[in-house]
Specification:
alpha+beta; 5-stranded mixed sheet; two-stranded antiparallel ribbon; 6 helices; 18% strand
């Protein structure tokens, strides 16, 4: 009886993807634990500082460790997302998500990490709830990426505004979309660079951004996540006048 042939290339690819998933999972778990202990230490040192009235020198070191830990978490997430996209293994797990709540949650998380910036939220109606069928985990990653980029590429002391609004379709009155945008007061992006901003590994190069860290994958993966949700992502920017990254998603019918 003839033994079934095994595609060695396919098997190697599967094993590589499995190994990447396993290693990424372990990295993320470890980095999450490190981040939790950093927060505990920061809280203890802040309490001591309050009681003694003296700036504790270790706080500045912990701040650096926290930033680098967050940077590693971002790299792991982006590399894993890229691997899944390239191997067509990127799967969305849909659920009914309160987008207003998700946006507020992402803003609050970024506010705790970025004390040098002011975060504002712009909505049509504070009491409105906007629901969409989407993958909450990956959509939160998109928001986190756009918010962290806004922080990274805008000077301390500036404001970052996050907006969300429901838009009715003129052609199909029964359907609607949600428009979410993140606006910063940063360095801006030249027009000739804007077309390439959503391509893999592309990074804006300028005097102001020369020292900024990154893989150049975040915006590409974010735009692809939105595309697979049936939406789109775009950019409006002028050098010296900041940038606005926007995306739209289809909404559930009322």
């Amino acid at each position: 009886m003839r033994e079934p042939q095994v595609n060695e290339e396919s098997m190697r690819s599967t094993l590589k993807d499995f190994a990447l998933d396993a290693v990424s999972h372990e990295f993320r778990n470890t980095l999450t634990i490190i981040g939790c202990y950093i927060q505990i230490l920061e809280g203890d040192l802040l309490d001591q500082q309050t009681q003694q009235g003296v700036l504790h020198p270790a706080l500045s070191y912990l701040s650096v460790i926290a930033r680098q830990t967050k940077h590693l978490q971002t790299i792991v997430t982006e590399l894993l997302g890229l691997s899944h996209l390239e191997n067509e293994q990127f799967k969305l797990r849909y659920s009914r998500v309160n987008l207003m709540q998700l946006v507020r949650q992402a803003i609050e998380q970024q506010r705790q990490l970025s004390l040098d910036h002011t975060f504002l939220m712009q909505v049509q109606d504070e009491q409105e709830t906007i629901f969409a069928s989407c993958d909450a985990t990956w959509l939160e990653q998109v928001l986190t990426n756009l918010l962290s980029n806004a922080v990274k590429y805008s000077p301390p002391g500036t404001a970052i505004t996050v907006g969300i609004e429901r838009l009715k379709q003129a052609i199909q009155p029964l359907s609607s979309t949600v428009h979410i945008w993140i606006r910063d007061e940063g360095y801006g992006i030249r027009e000739e660079e804007q077309e390439a901003i959503f391509t893999p590994y592309y990074r804006v190069r300028s005097r102001e951004t020369a020292d900024k860290e990154g893989t150049g994958l975040g915006l590409y993966i974010s735009a692809e996540i939105i595309r697979q949700h049936g939406g789109r992502m775009w950019l409006e920017s002028q050098p010296g006048r900041g940038s606005t990254f926007s995306f739209s998603l289809p909404l559930e019918q009322d």
